[in-house]
Amino acid sequence: MAHIDRRPGIRPRPSLGRRLDIIARSCFPGCAVLLLMLLTQVPFGIRGQAELLPAVTLGAVWFWSLARPDTMPPPVVFLIGLLADLMGYVPLGICAFTLLAVHGVAVSLRRFLARHGFALIWSIYSLVAFVASMLIWLLVMLLSFRYFPPDGALFQAVLAIAIYPVIAIPFSAAHRSIADPDRV
Amino acid sequence: MIRLSIQARQALAKLTLPVLVVVSFGVMLLGKADTLLAERARMALADGLAPIYAVLAGPLQDLREAITDGATLWDMRDENLRLRRENEQLRRWQSIALALDAENRRLKAALHWIPDPAASFVTARVVADAGGVYAKAVLLSVGPNHGIKKGEIALDERGLVGRVTEVGERTARVLLITDMNSRIPVILETSRAHAILVGTNGPRPRLMYWPEGTMPQEGERVVTSAEANAFPANLPVGTVHFNSNGTPDVEPAARLQKLEIVRIFDYGLNGVTAPGPQGQAQEQAQSKPTPGRH
User: Fold this and answer.
1) Between the ranges A2-6, B219-223, B286-290, where is the mean pLDDT highest?
2) What's the number of CA atoms in the CB half-sphere (13 Å) around residue B139?
3) Statement: residue A162 has pLDDT above 90
4) Interval B117-127 mean pLDDT
5) Which of B20, B38, B129 sits opposite A75 (nearest CB)?
């Protein structure tokens, strides 16, 4: 376990139950993101529901890449991206690439952002979400050789920014409780 | 589990991100090179998820109905008055329609017209949006052994919805007429001029390539044309509406924003064989039970 390696010292080997608990807790972010992605696909019959999937995925990956990058490693981000490509009917690989880029940005800014509050995290996320939405839009146009009006991408960016607090509040509660592998 | 030194593990951890970025580029190229692979993966995923959506769709629809019921209770009196007026109007139309139908039968009998077989259809529930941000499509939940094929035509109770583009084991994807990739041969009903209906991803598809001199009229009905043998003639598509730029759009007759149940018709068209004479194809569709007509 990566988080144990980081704090050297002699301690008793964790019991099987404890190890299962740690695994379950570190699986939480990935599973929560998958569940959220499935939820966005439920036919609620609201307009603009299509933009919800990329918006939610962007926010969730950003949050967990900042909060617990060891439970949201690049392979998990890649799989989430691939699933978002399949479920969102965009050419394969686009969301995977964009989410990996978002993950990379989040991990590199992690130390800096940890010292600041939610407002700065949200403002930087707004920029990242906007650039990511534009990147998806450009890649979709590039891969399908077709011009798409930017309305969808812009709405997706706005939705991603607006929905971030809605995702971040329950996630930060989970971050301190169920997703924390050090809790006994 | 393979035991690695801490340095090796850290180096690996640093490498995964760039490697996966390269892999995602590879996936983009692969998806471009083999579009069938992506399509198959999508339909497999949709097949897996459709039962969940199908289970959720029922209660969600009940909930929506309960909400609309609650809302209609408020203006029931006005609604009743409106409906009574509409009913009177419709009765007048019904008598006209019956007279025309009788006349049509007489004329057909005089011509020794051979009636065409009725098109078979299956009814399916719309379980999810299948378009994403850059396409307009819906996913239908159809049971196993459904017999739906690509290219079949989807209609709701009011008009044309789209065509089936992908078929899975339990699901089918219908590309809506509003999608960017949708091109439908249509006829303007009063002038009988041919045109092409081009999807824009917006709520109203655009009318293009009508013949010079026959400008589409505001409010004119637009129906499918049998040209290219992709559609039967005379399915209701919508009405012409000029947008603020002065270009003619078509307001779809089908309720594409809130599709719940659609019918998939098999007209036995394959789109490549030589189409029959235009008049025959039009008559053929009139004798068929098309939704929105009765």
Assistant:
1) B219-223
2) 33
3) yes
4) 84
5) B20
The residue whose two tokens read 């081009």 is: B198
Interchain contact, A74 vs B16, CB within 8 Å:
yes
ipTM score for this prediction = 0.83
Task: Give pLDDT, residue B187.
Answer: 93
Q: Are the beta carbons of A49 and B129 separated by less than 8 Å? A: yes
**Rounded average pLDDT over A76-104:** 93
Mean pLDDT score, B71-78: 85
Confirm or reject contact between A145 and chain B (CB < 8 A). Answer: no
Query: Which residues make beta-bridge pairs with B129?
Result: B138
Does residue A139 belong to the interface with chain B, where contact is any CB pair within 8 Å? yes
Confidence at residue B291, expressed as pLDDT on a 0 to 100 scale: 43
- Tally DSSP H helices, then E strands, for chain B: 4, 12
CB contact under 8 A, B31 and A143: yes
| pLDDT of B260 strictly over 90 | no
The pTM is what? 0.80
**Minimum-distance CB partner of A91 among B9, B28, B202:** B28
Which structure tokens are listed for A57? 């995925």
For A31-63, letters b (16+ CB in 10 Å) and e give ebbbebbeebbbbebeeebbbbbbbbbbbbbbb
Those of residues 41-100 in A touching chain B at CB distance below 8 A are: 41-45, 47, 49-51, 53-54, 73-75, 77-78, 81-83, 86-94, 96-97, 100
Mutation site, B24, B136, B178, interface A, largest A CB count within 10 A: B24
